[in-house]
C-alpha cells in the first residue's frame, strides 16, 4: 500500500484558493476518528494518485507523523479544466467490513473472435480491509463466442470473505457472433 504525505488544512483558507496555488483539498473520515480531518496534498501527488489508483483503492495517508490506512472513497475530477477538485479518504479498521467497488479490467480484448459487450464495469462489495478488491482482471483469451460471464463466475467474488452487493447472476460481459450485413443485389 502506498503512503501519501498530507498536511492539515487551514480551515480559514478557501478550497478555490488552495487549488489556485497547486494544492488539492482532501478529507479523511471514518468511525475511528473523533472528527473528520481536513487535509491537503500537492497537485502532483494528486495527479499521481489519479494515474495509479481509483475509487476503492487502499492507500496510507501520513499526517503529522501519524499514518492512517484508508480507502479512496471519492476522487472528484473536473475534466473541463483537467483538475482534481477534491479527494475523500475513509479510514479503515481491522475486523470491520467496509463498502467498496472493484473495477473489472478486461485483457486480451483483441483475441476475442466475436463482438465483446461489457455490461458491468464495477462490482460493489463489502469486506474487511485485507480482503477488499481494487480491480479484478478477466482474461478474454480463449473465450468462445456465446460466452456469458456473470459476477458469480469470477473466482475473486466466490470468496466467503467478500460480501457481494450486487446479484451474483448479473452479467459482466457477453461475446456474441459478428453479424454479417445483408446485402442483396437489386
Account of the protein in words:
By secondary structure, this protein is mainly beta. The protein contains two helices and 13 strands, in the order E-H-E-E-H-E-E-E-E-E-E-E-E-E-E. Strands 1-3-2-6-5-4 form a six-stranded mixed barrel. A four-stranded mixed sheet has the order 10-7-9-12, with no helix packed on it. Strands 8-13-11 form a three-stranded antiparallel sheet, with no helix packed on it. A hairpin with a 2-residue loop joins strand 4 and strand 5. The longest helix has 10 residues, at 43-52. The mean pLDDT is 92.
Name a few traits of the molecule.
186 residues, mainly beta, six-stranded mixed β-barrel, 2 helices, 13 strands, globular
